[in-house]
Design brief:
Number of helices: 12
CATH superfamily of the largest domain: Bordetella uptake gene, domain 1
Helix content: 40-55%
Shape: globular
CATH topology of the largest domain: D-Maltodextrin-Binding Protein, domain 2
Strand content: 15-25%
CATH architecture of the largest domain: 3-Layer(aba) Sandwich
Oligomer: single chain
CATH class of the largest domain: Alpha Beta
Number of strands: 9
Order of helices and strands: HEHEHEHEHEHEHEHEHEHHH
Distance between the termini: 69 Å
Number of domains: 2
Largest sheet: 9 strands, mixed
Length: 331
C-alpha cells in the first residue's frame, strides 16, 4: 500500500514539474526574431499589413519581427514554406482568402492542406475590391449604369484587367458579369503593377482592384472609382456607392479577407499568447482607423481563431462555386 502511494506521489510530482517547466518555457517566448511570410510582392496589401502588424509586435515584445516575401504560384510558395516550418511560434503566414480558399479550387494539386497544415491565429479583416475606370479614355463612364449600358450595347467588346487568373479581381469580374448578364472579356496580368498599368494606359476598360491600391489611384487622380464590392460603402471612399446600389444588382458582394496563420501543431500556450497579442493590436482604435482610412479594409467583427475557422471553412465552399462558374484555371 505504502509503495503504491509513494509511486503515485512521485508520478504527481514529476507531472507537476514537467508542467511547471513547460509554463516557464512558454513564458520566455518570444526570445528571438519572429518571421511573418507573405506570398505577394513588397508593397502589396498583405506586405503593408504584415509590416504594420510587425512593428506593433516588435514594440510589444522587444524582439524583431521580420517580414519576408516569397512570391509565386498565387501565394502557394509562401504557404508551403510556413506549412513546413517548425511549429515553435516563430514562423507565421499572412494569408488570404485567395491563398487558403480560392486556391483550393483553382489549383489541381497543392503541396499542403489549407486546414490541416496550419494553425489559425487571427482573422485580420475583410478586403473589398473597387471597380475602377480610366476616365480619360472613357469620360462618358461616370457611373456603373453607364458602364453597363456600354457593355450591353457592344457584347464582348469591353475588357477588364486582373492581377491573374483566379485572383479576387478576376472572380469579382466574373460574378459581376454573371449577375448583370453581360459579356465582358477578362485580361489577366502578372500582378498589381501590370494590371493597373493596363488600365491607366487604356489597354482595358476597367478593373476590379483591391482596396489599398485602388484608393491610392483614386486619391492620386489616376482612376475613377464607380463602385465597391462590399455590402456597405467604404469610409475611405464615402462617395463611392456599392455595386449593389450603383449597378442595380441587389445582394451583390465580393470581398476576401486577410488572416494570420502558423504551422500546424503549435503549442497551445503560444497560440493563445500570439492570438491575444494580435487581436489586441488590431482592435486598437488607431489601428482600425489606419485599416479603414488608408487600406480600405473592414476590421473583423470577431477576429478570434474560432470565428476565423467558421469563415475559412465556409469560404472554401463558396469560392469553389465561384471558381467553377468563372471557368478559371491555372494548371
Amino acid at each position: 500500500m505504502m509503495r503504491n502511494v509513494l509511486i503515485k506521489s512521485v508520478v504527481v510530482f514529476l507531472l507537476t514539474l514537467v508542467s511547471t517547466l513547460g509554463i516557464a518555457q512558454e513564458l520566455k517566448w518570444p526570445t528571438r526574431a519572429i518571421t511573418i511570410t507573405g506570398g505577394f510582392p513588397n508593397g502589396a496589401g498583405t506586405d503593408i499589413y504584415a509590416r504594420k502588424l510587425g512593428e506593433a509586435l516588435t514594440a510589444l515584445w522587444d524582439v524583431p519581427v521580420v517580414v519576408d516575401s516569397k512570391t509565386g504560384a498565387g501565394g502557394n510558395i509562401a504557404s508551403d514554406a510556413v506549412a513546413r516550418a517548425q511549429p515553435d511560434g516563430y514562423s507565421y503566414l499572412l494569408g488570404t482568402a485567395g491563398t487558403h480558399a480560392i486556391n483550393v479550387a483553382l489549383y489541381k494539386k497543392l503541396n499542403f492542406d489549407v486546414e490541416k497544415d496550419f494553425t489559425r491565429i487571427a482573422l485580420l479583416g475583410d478586403v473589398p475590391n473597387v471597380l475602377l475606370v480610366n476616365s480619360k479614355k472613357h469620360p462618358e463612364i461616370k457611373t456603373c449604369a453607364d458602364l453597363l449600358k456600354l457593355a450591353r450595347a457592344k457584347p464582348g467588346s469591353m475588357n477588364f484587367a486582373s492581377t491573374g487568373n483566379g485572383a479576387s479581381g478576376h472572380l469579382a469580374g466574373a460574378q459581376f458579369a454573371n449577375a448583370a448578364k453581360i459579356n465582358i472579356v477578362h485580361v489577366p496580368y502578372r500582378g498589381q503593377g501590370p494590371a493597373m498599368a493596363a488600365l491607366l494606359g487604356g489597354d482595358v476598360e476597367f478593373i476590379f482592384n483591391q482596396s489599398a491600391p485602388a484608393i491610392n489611384a483614386v486619391k492620386g487622380g489616376q482612376a475613377t472609382a464607380i463602385a465597391v464590392t462590399t455590402s456597405s460603402r467604404l469610409s475611405a471612399l464615402p462617395d463611392v456607392p456599392t455595386v449593389a446600389e450603383a449597378c442595380d444588382l441587389p445582394g451583390f458582394e465580393s470581398s476576401t479577407w486577410y488572416g494570420l496563420f502558423g504551422p500546424a501543431n503549435m503549442p497551445p500556450a503560444i497560440v493563445s499568447k500570439m492570438s491575444a497579442a494580435v487581436i489586441d493590436i488590431i482592435s486598437q482604435p488607431s489601428f482600425k482607423q489606419w485599416l479603414m482610412e488608408t487600406q480600405g479594409i473592414t476590421p473583423a467583427v470577431d477576429p478570434s481563431p474560432a470565428a476565423f475557422a467558421r469563415i475559412h471553412q465556409a469560404d472554401i465552399k463558396h469560392w469553389a462555386e465561384v471558381v467553377k462558374m468563372s471557368g478559371a484555371q491555372v494548371d
